Amino acid sequence: MGDLGVHDSVGVSSSCRPVVACVPSCLVVIPARDEAATIARVVSETRAHTGLPVLVVNDASSDETAREAAGAGAEVLNLADRLGAWGAIQTGLRFALRRGYTMVVTMDADCQHAAGDILAVAGPVASGQCQVSIGSCPERGSKARKAAWSFFRTISGLPYADLTSGFRAYGRKAIRLLLRAEATLSDFQDMGVLLLAHRHGLSIREVPVCMQARASGKSRIFASWFKVAQYMLYTTVVSLTRRKA
Amino acid sequence: MDYRVTSLVMSLAAAVIIIRLIRGNLLHAGYAAWWLGGAGVISLAGAFPDSVNRIGHALGVSYPPTFFLVLAVIALAIRLLAADIARTRMELTLRRLVQRNAELALELKKLGREVDRLAGRDPEGPAA
Questions:
Q1: A9, A56, A122, B49: least CB-packed within 10 angstroms?
Q2: Which element (helix H / strand E) includes A208?
Q3: Whose CA is closest to A231, among A129, A127, A149, A142?
Q4: Which value does ipTM take for this structure?
Q5: In a domain, B73, yes or no
Q6: Would A39 be classed as within a structural domain?
Q7: A216 in any annotated domain
Q8: Does A10 score more than 50 pLDDT?
Q9: Cβ–Cβ of B99/A81 closer than 8 Å?
Q10: H-state helical runs in chain A
Q11: Does residue B28 surpass a pLDDT of 80?
Q12: Chain B residues contacting A, CB < 8 Å?
């Protein structure tokens, strides 16, 4: 990797960088919508564990998510309209590229991902072993979710165990690829993004991590049977049409 | 009443509505061309029904009046597809604009703070 210096243009105090030198010029991007109850804790723990700069992309929340995140020390980008988790992440990737970061770690705002695992997820990308790493915890899914993953693996040709994890690290090449128009039109961060990276020959690696149950709220994808059906249909179409030839 | 008059009145009414929509800025002139063309075809088909029947026969359609209906359905399907393509392009533009807007808003906020700092004002104060 090129730049191995600490990149701290996103306000991180000098006393808050315990392990930051382990990863090159890395930004932690957290998409958040109505996560006021947990976002401050996620930002604080991330900064305390890694010392990395944190960017929260506020997906047009109706609560105090932006204020809580800023109060905990994150830089905050406020979206004028809801773009969903992937749209928010892509905004963060764009921000990172413009600011000269060479790597981005994405994680959820609901305390599902442990800040202590960030360096484990970022490690393979930082050391150049791969361009995308997935913090993988396939054990967390219900039987129905595991069946869905198995179905998507079969029709997409993707071999990864955890297809929906939002705990990922992207290297510079991956960031550039994921800023393309075809990625902008993706509605979810899981299959479409992985298929794009896979199709363009980026190396992807899974890193086993532990995930907690979300501290508050519930999954928006699985909020109702209608949404589940909508997600399944959309992802099936994406998996069948975007798979590597 | 002759059915040719009926179809002529219908197509003329459609043309008038489309022109009024364009004049009221409710329909982009580029999109209107398709619908005006459609109204023209309806009036021609109504005025010369035998020609439609002859074309249908020539193409092997056993019941020629359905030929015109099939053509209309195909034309509408193409129009719907074109509309979805246009919507996809607009969706892409909108998403990019929202993303860019967020970045610019942050830049503006930072610049405001910098101006306040240089002017010796409290950035968190009521005048900020």
A1: A9
A2: strand A204-208
A3: A149
A4: 0.79
A5: yes
A6: yes
A7: yes
A8: no
A9: no
A10: 39-50, 65-71, 84-98, 118-126, 143-156, 172-177, 181-184, 191-199, 225-242
A11: yes
A12: 88, 91-92, 94-96, 98-103, 105-106
